[in-house]
Write a structure and sequence with these properties.
mainly alpha, 4-stranded mixed sheet, 14 helices, elongated
Length: 373
């Protein structure tokens, strides 16, 4: 115990003497948590649209007004022909073209149907697909309104209708930041933990102090524990600042679930992530090498964690790989506890999986660390 106390004293002094490291540990995550949720919003608005109206009728003007009033689209121009409108897509000034044919209103009234033409600039696949979906939905609503206007109301018994009322649970206002901030906080804590712990042991080797430690009778597990605990404490502090200082005060996200349960899982998760970083450091000879390996794993874990792309929409082989990412489980747990208020019975499986990660990664790091190099 005395040996561990000495190691912890050395590590904390080493960390707090390094001013650039302190800025990276505390200031960088706060700035990222303030900025990233503003950018990571998949609800796309201000989609540039060009309308070619060959009909110039009341119905066509109603449709155009409905499209603009939706708030999703920004009108670029009313060119006279499709060729003129297509030039806006070629110059990336427009994302969609809506072409309304001549006789639009007349065919709707007399024939009961009329086709519209939509051209989508799909160079940005997500923006193009969402813009097309928004526009199709608006046209469908406009079509329903027209049909209702043309239906004559019956004199006696009206036909039975079904009214559907929807309610949003756990995120009533459908605020996308409520969904993204917990996941981004997990990602930031993971990156800080994995990067810093992977660089720590290698840095000792580069400056030569590792040789002085290796000639002492310090056990390997105590050495690894002495490297893990300081960054475990720092990870807890960063998470607390993020969830309360930024999440609560800035974004208004109030955790619904049990905070003790959340911090219990966080404690276990940090042990697993720091174990990964320490394992990387035992295989690395330089800080550059450790950073490259840590970046490789963290990039894959982040992209396949379900933070930006739902796991359910991934191919089967990719969805299987996500089960080997600790970040995947903590993002799920964060959203379940913070937004949904889930209890231990709902996440006990995640506790078991994270315990396996923590035991395997730290045991591997202890086994692989060599006191003689």
């Amino acid at each position: 115990m005395r040996t561990l106390k000495f190691l912890l004293y050395k590590e904390f002094r080493q960390i707090f003497r390094n001013k650039p490291l302190l800025a990276m540990l505390f200031a960088a995550p706060i700035m990222q948590l303030l900025i990233l949720p503003l950018a990571a919003d998949f609800e796309i608005k201000n989609i540039n649209i060009t309308v070619v109206d060959h009909d110039q009728s009341g119905y066509s003007q109603q449709l155009i007004s409905k499209v603009i009033a939706s708030g999703y689209f920004k009108m670029i121009d009313y060119p006279a022909s499709f060729d003129d409108a297509f030039k806006y897509i070629e110059s990336d000034k427009s994302d969609l073209i809506l072409e309304i044919p001549a006789g639009f209103e007349q065919n709707l009234i007399r024939e009961g149907s009329q086709e519209l033409f939509i051209a989508i600039n799909a160079i940005n696949g997500m923006k193009g697909s969402l813009g097309g979906s928004y526009l199709n939905r608006i046209i469908a609503e406009f079509n329903t309104d027209i049909r209702l206007q043309q239906i004559q109301m019956p004199r006696y018994k009206p036909l039975p209708t079904i009214d559907v009322a929807s309610s949003n649970w756990y995120n009533p206002m459908m605020n996308y930041r409520f969904f993204m901030v917990p996941g981004i906080l997990v990602l930031l804590v993971s990156m800080i933990g994995a990067y810093m712990s992977s660089l720590n042991v290698v840095r000792e080797s580069e400056i030569g102090t590792i040789e002085q430690i290796n000639v002492t009778p310090i056990k390997k597990h105590l050495f690894i524990l002495g490297k893990l605990i300081p960054f475990w404490v720092i990870g807890m502090v960063i998470f607390t600042v993020g969830i309360f200082g930024i999440g609560w005060l800035v974004y208004g996200i109030v955790p619904i679930g049990n905070l003790f349960l959340l911090y219990s899982y966080l404690s276990l998760y940090l042990v697993a992530v720091l174990g990964l970083g320490l394992l990387i450091s035992t295989y690395s000879q330089t800080q550059q090498q450790a950073m490259s390996i840590a970046f490789f794993f963290m990039m894959i874990f982040a992209l396949m964690s379900g933070l930006f792309t739902p796991v359910e929409s991934m191919p089967k082989w990719a969805a299987t790989l996500t089960q080997f990412s600790p970040i995947t489980y903590f993002i799920k747990v964060m959203r379940m506890i913070v937004l949904k208020g889930s209890g231990f019975s709902d996440i006990k499986y995640h506790f078991v999986i994270m315990s396996i990660f923590a035991i395997v990664l730290n045991s591997w790091a202890i086994f692989n660390y060599k006191k003689t190099r």
